[in-house]
Design goal:
It is built from 11 helices and 6 strands. By secondary structure, the protein is an alpha+beta fold. A 4-stranded antiparallel beta sheet has the order 4-3-6-5. It has a two-stranded antiparallel sheet with strand order 1-2. A hairpin with a 2-residue loop joins strand 1 and strand 2. The longest helix has 32 residues. The protein is extended, with a radius of gyration of 27 Å.
Length: 328
């Protein structure tokens, strides 16, 4: 974050020096300049030229964002729901809270300027413009309005979520491989007495867990974030036990149970409001994604610009269109 600020200050300083050296001024446009946006040594850069370059660089991405925004707006119009500027600002604030933590590594509270800088840095890394981001926030405000209209949390769902968050959990490591040779190598090294975490780092093909020695986040028996076969195996094992190979789709897993975490000493009624809030925070964005994807698939979309149409049809054919529901 500091490096980005230094870069911005350096750019500003360079511009100031440039202005001072060349005596740069900004004269008003003349009628003879036509549609030029700038004149460089007598040569005009036309607005059409600039628009063409912008269309080539960002046209497809912006068009996709505008398409899904229009689909979301059409749905709120159909349901006679009102989306205000305050609703859009709340989406912006939610996104900013996810992107920029409230405090830095030293525990100091981030200023609004630092949070904004963190957002701009992330957008640059992802090749997105602030315009695209704001379109996404407006789209999300419409989607949230539609989803929240009929969203309900049942008592059974609340208690199930409570059990997942506060009930007994397992801590385990795994080795994940997609071929028989890798499986045999892992089994042979474990049978030779090699440390499970070391084998996971060397052999496992799961790029998220391998660097951590195969460590999985703690999970409950009903945690849908992990395959049922792995959950069921973990809750039948004793701490320190290593499982036989478990097949999950195209992958083989070897599981080691580290320990069982007993249920938290918490009453359901004491944390009910927090559980419901966390459940809503998790479930509503998922439903928003499903909604816009459904609207996108049902929509009749005609792209009139020939260049954009060719790019759009190519991506549709390759099934590599940017997820219309994706946001930073």
């Amino acid at each position: 974050m500091v490096r980005g600020a230094q870069c911005g200050n350096r750019n500003a300083s360079l511009l100031a020096v440039f202005v001072a050296v060349v005596g740069l001024t900004w004269p008003a446009a003349r009628a003879s300049d036509g549609d030029a946006v700038a004149i460089v040594n007598g040569r005009p850069i036309s607005k059409r030229e600039m628009v063409d370059k912008l269309m080539e660089a960002h046209g497809l991405s912006i068009m996709q964002q505008l398409i899904v925004l229009e689909l979301a707006k059409a749905e709120t119009r159909r349901l006679k729901l009102t989306v205000t500027d305050a609703d859009v600002q709340r989406e912006f604030d939610r996104a900013l809270a996810r992107i920029a933590p409230p405090v830095d590594a030293k525990g100091q509270a981030l200023t609004d300027a630092e949070k904004q800088q963190a957002l701009e840095t992330l957008l640059r890394e992802r090749g997105l413009t602030m315009t695209e981001f704001r379109i996404g926030m407006e789209r999300n405000a419409h989607l949230r309005k539609v989803v929240e209209r009929d969203f309900r949390v049942t008592e059974a769902t609340l208690r199930e979520e409570f059990a997942r968050r506060y009930g007994e959990r397992a801590e385990a490591r795994h080795i994940q491989v997609g071929d028989v040779n890798g499986l045999h190598e892992a089994l042979n090294r474990l049978e030779a007495g090699e440390d499970f975490a070391a084998v996971a780092r060397a052999v496992s093909q799961n790029t998220d867990t391998a660097p951590e020695g195969g460590r999985l986040p703690p999970f409950a028996f009903n945690d849908e974030g992990l395959a049922p076969a792995l959950r069921e195996a973990a809750f039948t094992m004793a701490p320190g036990e290593v499982s036989k190979p478990i097949r999950v789709g195209p992958w083989w897993h070897i599981l080691k149970l580290e320990r069982r975490v007993p249920p938290a000493d918490v009453r359901f009624e004491d944390v009910r409001a927090d559980v419901e809030r966390q459940l809503r925070d998790q479930a509503i964005p998922q439903q928003m994604n499903r909604l816009i994807t459904e609207l996108f698939r049902k929509a009749e979309i005609r792209v009139l610009d020939s260049d954009l149409r060719a790019k759009y049809e190519k991506l549709l054919k390759e099934n590599t269109l940017t997820d219309p529901a994706a946001t930073p």
